[in-house]
Amino acid sequence: MDLTFDIANFFAGMLVLTSFMLLYQDRIMGLINVFTLHAIALSLAVGWQAWAQDRPHLWVTAGIAVFFKALVIPFSLRSIVKKLRIHRDVEIVGGIGITMLVGIGLVALSLVVMLPATTAADPLAREDLAFALSVVLLGLLMMVTRRNAVSQIIGFMSLENGLILAAAGAEGMPLVVEISVAFSVLIAFIVIGVFLFRIRERFDTVDVGELDNARRDRQ
Amino acid sequence: MTYLALAAAYALLALPFGAAIALAFVEDHRQAAHVNVAVAAAVFACAVLLLFVRPPAGDFVFVDDLNNVFIVLSTFIGATTAGYSASYIQHEIDAGKLKSGYIRFYHAMYQALMFSMNLGLLANNIGLMWVAVELATLTTVLMVGIYRTPEALEAAWKYFILGSVGIALALFGTILVYMSAQPLLGDGYEAMKWTSLMARAAEFSPHLLNVAFVFLMLGFGTKVGLVPMHAWLPDAHAEGPTPISAVLSGLLLNVALYAVLRYKMLLSVNPAAIAPGPMMVTLGLASLLFAGLMLYGRKDVKRLFAYSSIEHMGIITFAFGMGGPLANFAGLLHMAMHSLTKSAIFFAVGHITQAKGTQRIEDIRGLTQSHPMLGWSLVVGVAAIAGLPPLGVFTSEFLVVTSTFARQPLLAIPLALGLLIAFGALLLRLTSLAFGEATEDKGEIEASYAPIVIHLALVLLAGLWLPPQLAAWFQNVAKLLG
User: Fold this and answer.
1) Is A89 strand, coil or helix?
2) What is the mean pLDDT of residues B451-458?
3) In terms of pLDDT, which residue wins out, B131 or B80?
4) Which residues of B fall within a CB distance of 8 Å from A149?
5) Which of A71, B57, B189, B364 is found 20 to 30 A from B469 (Cα to Cα)?
6) Percent of chain B whose predicted confidence (pLDDT) is above 90
7) Cross-chain Cβ contact A156/B165 below 8 Å
8) Better-scored residue on pLDDT, B112 or A117
9) How far apart are the first and last CA of chain B?
10) B306 to chain A nearest CA, in Å?
């Protein structure tokens, strides 16, 4: 039991750690690589839960995570980024130190919130849930601090990874939810892709800051 | 009878779903608009049928008194908006703003939106409800960006990012609710069904429910447009096609609010959980006051009314947060009145901006001179939304204020203040829009007045005389809400 618990913690912790790596990665290609790692960590964590809880349907979730998030999405993001010719771009990420500190604060916050609330739950699920909330909050932080559309998308998808970790920790939550999450991410990805191209068409950049310039004197 | 009821309930889903697929292939936009109206009207008929026959609660779909109110309101406005959108879209094609490919896409998305909203309202499964709200978000994102102008893209992007974050937080809350139910109800669908959740909620772990409600309130609250998660709302209303602004304000915000209400009911059953009311009251008041003040500086007419939607969603959330039969009744009535009035205003505003070729308030003047019908509809609509008697919004606002004065006089002060601030701003803008010397027209319009007149007539009727059956129905639901 102890080993099971430790390994679950190890994988979930790995996910939190990769979330931190996403926070400071400033090259777009590097960001996509770290996201791939994020997805792999997620599928390991979910796969371990599948084995530990003995729930075969979680293997499907883990499989979806590997297939879509570690293969399909990074691959298509790379090709989008190359087509848009922004693969060499370096994003200026302001205040890495402060962002990291805020990130640490968010992880502490999620532990403080989740652990007392879940005393009745299975310990395996408990800590997973606390880690999952950390990943969600770190994803939010990344979306707030980034200006580039691709980085915001990756922040959003890392946030969704946190949700899947939470769903996997919730014992016996029907598969339908996980499939729909995966599906929604896929749709979201298509939507994003469509918009990215239009943003590029219209502004010749994917810096979301440029969108602010489109405001002119509306209000 | 049961079969009829089941058929009606499933038709609410199957009709728009089928129509969404079919409309994607209809080349002729006039035909597509007709199909759109016909399907929306048929769906409304099914919704009305559900008032008389009710299907037994199924595993995925159920109808009770609460969601029936929302379904009837939502399908009604869906049908009138479909009628309005036919003439609106015709003008956009004539003006060369939309190409035929986009029209096909627009009609298909309109029905997809109707499908997802009906699914969200009918769902007897917290996961399914979440999926439906997400689907509704994605379809509206695509419709907001349909003009492809830089402004429309910005609005759609902002809506997409904020909406997704909101919906993600709501999913986290949904998972937590499942976790709190799972030890009692066992694995699988049973622990996600509204009907079984409500029956056993008193025994759930209150700590988990508390944390869950915070996430659900913030998540679905983003979609309701509550301050401080409202930033997407004015952009999405201002830059998308006007029928979509009407649907967003009139329906989508209500669907998100319905989700919040369901979870509020769930928490009220559990004696050890936090009271959800104060949180809703706080967010509601913040939205009312903030949006009331923001109404003053607006330069864009659609943005003006978008902020007014934030204000009214604030009032409604406040009323439901106060709870109790009277405040809940007022909240329900206000929700219905706001949906009808705001969509009527957007119908009028849509034609006005088409006629004047601009959305800037300072370039639109003297509407009652140049377009008497549209101008006076706008006057009536804005008078209604500002809360002037004898229109229906006055009745419901009056009920909200008096019930608050009776129970929490201190809360009634900021409430009344917010209402007055918004009242002033709206009348100020209305006088410049409707009266004075008329500005030049930029385009010919063939307006469809019927939807505007029907909505405003209903609002007036509700203000003068609320049918006793309707009042009894709302009172019953208000009791259910606790």
Assistant:
1) coil
2) 95
3) B80
4) 157
5) B57
6) 58
7) yes
8) B112
9) 30
10) 11
Give this complex's ipTM. Answer: 0.86
Return residues 278-307 of B near A (CB < 8 Å). 297-300, 303
Pairwise CB contact (< 8 Å): B165 & A159: yes
Tens-digit pLDDT profile for residues B39-61: 999 999 999 999 888 888 888 89
Q: B256-309, pLDDT tens digit by residue?
A: 999 999 999 999 888 888 889 999 999 999 999 999 999 998 989 999 999 999
Would the CB atoms of B187 and A171 count as touching at under 8 Å? yes
Domain extents in chain A: 2-213
Distance to chain A for B176, nearest Cα, Å: 8
Tokens 């509809």, residue?
B377
Asked if B238's CB is within 8 angstroms of A218's CB, the reply is yes
pTM, full prediction: 0.91
User: Cβ contacts of residue B320 below 8 Å, gap of 6+?
Assistant: B257, B260, B261, B264, B280, B327, B328, B331, B481
